[in-house]
Amino acid sequence: MRRTLFVLLLLAPGLGLVLAFVSLVLYVAVSQSFGLYNLGGDSVFSLAHWQAMLGERRYWRALQYSAYIAVTASLLAVALAYPVALLLRKPFRGSLTLSALIKAPLLVPGLVAAFLFVNVISYHGIVNQLMLSLGLWDAPVRLQNDKNGYGVILLQVWKQLPFAFLLLSAAVQALPDAVLLAARDLGAGPLDRFRKVVLPLTAGAMQAALVLIFIGAAGDFSFQAVAGPPSVDSLATLMTSVQSTQGDWNGAAVVAVTLMALSLFGSAALAILVRGATRLARG
After folding, report:
1. pLDDT digits (tens, 9 = 90+) for 242-251
2. What is the pTM of this model?
3. Domain 57-282, second-level architecture
């Protein structure tokens, strides 16, 4: 008990400051969504801003789109990071180079990555020019700002893969060799060893990776603004549009609270999914 109290006292200055700022932001955002702290008029408690936003089709499309991008990107990033983390568990020639290449997106700002990606897939970009020179396409094909958001998902996976790799790699590196060797000696093949040994022992890291990537992808602005479909907003771009073009701070607060709720409930759903998958893997 004394040790726990001592640790809490050590964490109090930094943790208290973080909690204070987070609580303040949440309080102001929720209050503004109900008409308080109004920057463009009288501050009066009202449900009108929620009713107006809930009645707009683009709000629901933005919510659905953001959830789709976040879920798809987080699942794909973790699915790609797992085999790479297992491959690099034991060092080999070139493993350091491969690890560095995977971590490289951490050094590239998201907005820069989005513009580089657009230059590659634009109407006269590298991909179209390559396909034309190889004779695979008769004319350039429009790849930019596709309606399904595949470009945004690709960018999200590329940008978020290092986070998943770092978390999963640390968990995989911590696996005892004796456990894996014992499973192999008992007749477990590679798939069974992954399903019944590796997955349950690294479930915590997988859950953390899914949650962090989901939250980051759900609230991303730069990739959607540059490479996303022009006919659909994400919650982040919708929030900016409502505030900048309409001057509606309260409506923007409604979208902000929705984004926070999506991050919270989406993270909880992914955590439940990981637990269920772990139980099924254990059989």
Report:
1. 888 777 888 8
2. 0.85
3. Orthogonal Bundle (1.10)
